[in-house]
């Protein structure tokens, strides 16, 4: 016996269980509130905090085994409304106090360094994991995240007229038959963070919806760094400085992989039919990536969702999850299809660098060309794709996906990812890794 006080037991009656759980969670929050802030706790106080947080999380797991589907049905009015993961956990906090953190609780922790947070957002990961684990609610949530954003729909006419919209962190421009999305976070080598994600997803939506283009291209913009002066850089992955400083919220990961990355891979859910391949209800276009210099972390993850990849002969790819302490998006699901299981583990678990101009790199990159031939090669690829029309492109993409990664397989993966990434995001190992491998404490935000 460890002397641990047992948590509440649940009967399956929602009203009774909700009242019991809320009482338990409120008591835990009150106890945690009496302790010093994490940065000021001694060893015993931190042990007490860990015990309170663990008990609350275990209780949420048990409660959600019984009631996750019922809560989702209530929030979506029995599947009549689509709610993105940006908002769903916060709506759940209002419906079921204590189940997930409120916006005020998350905002309070967002002002802290990552190492100083108690990780209230872990409860968001637990909740989303249970929603996605249920086939009916999980597929509905996947559908919600594949719908075009409202801003995208509202600005589509502007793009149709002008052929370009510059959002700042991202730009979308029509070039002939291609809609080109360019990430523009120059100061951070086109890394992704909470300042870039929304605009990049909107740009991608518009590129897919644009009726005057037939194919989409993803590029990185020109950067400021003197080492790469006047050069385009594809992507430095997640902004590790922002991550260390506590500026990357947990939901960022889920919004990204269920939103923009999955939209590139599957298209947009625009009609009455669902986005599952068996229903064929997505509006999609082929995607081509132009990789300049490097595709690190999230940059490499994008390549696994592309239909064609052109890379500079001096470029490389990495998935440095081990050195960051997080899961590299859906790479664990997709990378094995390109390089095999053993090489995928070397890349993700051991940080193996893949030169684009290597046998392993060419398993991901379709063409590797001299850097100064990138523009001409991309133009030729667009001409090749569109020269005879792309009527069958969507059909062929669906035919590949239904055998490789149908939507239900992605749903199951994300159910695991939401929980595991939540714990990784708030792990002390993440902070230690960033300080050891990134010198994060010395970098300016």
Structure explained in plain terms:
By secondary structure, this protein is an alpha/beta fold. It folds into two domains: 14-145, Methane Monooxygenase Hydroxylase, Chain G, domain 1 (Up-down Bundle); 147-248 and 286-405, 2-enoyl-CoA Hydratase, Chain A, domain 1. It has 19 helices and twelve strands. It has helices at 14-34, 43-75, 88-95, 103-110, 122-133, 135-146, 150-162, 197-209, 240-244, 250-258, 260-266, 298-303, 321-324, 331-339, 341-350, 374-386, 393-404, 407-425, 428-437, and strands at residues 164-166, 170-175, 178-183, 215-220, 268-269, 282-283, 287-291, 294-296, 308-312, 316-318, 354-355, 367-369. The strands form three sheets. A seven-stranded mixed beta sheet has the order 1-2-3-4-7-9-12, with helices on both faces. Strands 8-10-11 form a three-stranded mixed beta sheet. Strand 3 (178-183), helix 8 (197-209) and strand 4 form a beta-alpha-beta unit. Helix 5 crosses helix 6 and helix 14 crosses helix 15. The longest helix has 33 residues, at 43-75. It is globular. The relative contact order is 0.11.
């Amino acid at each position: 016996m460890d002397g641990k006080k047992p948590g509440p037991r649940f009967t399956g009656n929602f009203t009774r269980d909700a009242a019991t759980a809320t009482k338990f969670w409120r008591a835990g929050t009150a106890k945690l509130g009496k302790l010093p802030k994490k940065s000021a706790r001694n060893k015993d106080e931190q042990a007490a905090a860990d015990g309170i947080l663990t008990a609350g999380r275990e209780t949420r797991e048990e409660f959600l085994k019984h009631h996750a589907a019922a809560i989702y049905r209530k929030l979506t009015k029995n599947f009549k409304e689509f709610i993105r993961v940006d908002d769903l956990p916060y709506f759940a906090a209002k419906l079921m106090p204590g189940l997930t953190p409120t916006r005020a609780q998350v905002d309070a922790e967002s002002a802290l360094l990552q190492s100083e947070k108690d990780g209230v957002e872990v409860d968001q990961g637990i909740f989303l994991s249970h929603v996605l684990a249920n086939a009916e609610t999980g597929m509905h949530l996947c559908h919600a995240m594949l719908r075009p954003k409202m801003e995208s729909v509202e600005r589509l006419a502007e793009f149709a007229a002008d052929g370009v919209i510059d959002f700042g962190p991202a730009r979308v421009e029509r070039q002939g038959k291609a809609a080109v999305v360019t990430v523009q976070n120059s100061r951070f080598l086109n890394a992704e963070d909470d300042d870039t994600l929304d605009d990049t997803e909107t740009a991608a939506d518009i590129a897919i919806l644009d009726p005057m283009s037939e194919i989409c291209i993803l590029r990185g913009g020109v950067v400021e760094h003197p080492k790469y002066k006047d050069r385009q850089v594809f992507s430095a992955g997640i902004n590790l400085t922002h991550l260390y400083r506590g500026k990357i919220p947990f939901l960022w990961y889920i919004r990204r992989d269920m939103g923009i990355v999955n939209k590139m891979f599957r298209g947009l859910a625009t009609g009455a039919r669902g986005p599952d391949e068996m229903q064929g209800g997505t509006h999609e276009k082929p995607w081509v990536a132009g990789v300049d210099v490097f595709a690190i972390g999230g940059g490499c993850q994008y390549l696994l969702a592309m239909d064609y990849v052109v890379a500079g002969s001096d470029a490389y790819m990495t998935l440095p999850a081990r050195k960051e302490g997080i899961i590299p998006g859906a790479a664990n699901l997709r990378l094995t299809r390109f390089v095999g299981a053993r090489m995928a583990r070397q890349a993700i678990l051991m940080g193996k660098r893949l030169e684009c101009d290597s046998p392993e790199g060419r398993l991901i990159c379709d063409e590797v060309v001299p850097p100064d031939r990138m523009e001409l090669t991309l133009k030729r690829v667009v001409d090749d794709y569109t020269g005879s029309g792309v009527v069958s492109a969507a059909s062929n993409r669906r035919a590949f996906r239904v055998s490789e990664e149908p939507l239900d397989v992605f749903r199951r993966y994300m159910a695991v990812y939401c929980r595991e990434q939540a714990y990784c995001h708030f792990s002390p190992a993440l902070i230690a890794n960033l300080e050891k491998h990134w010198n994060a404490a010395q970098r300016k935000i």
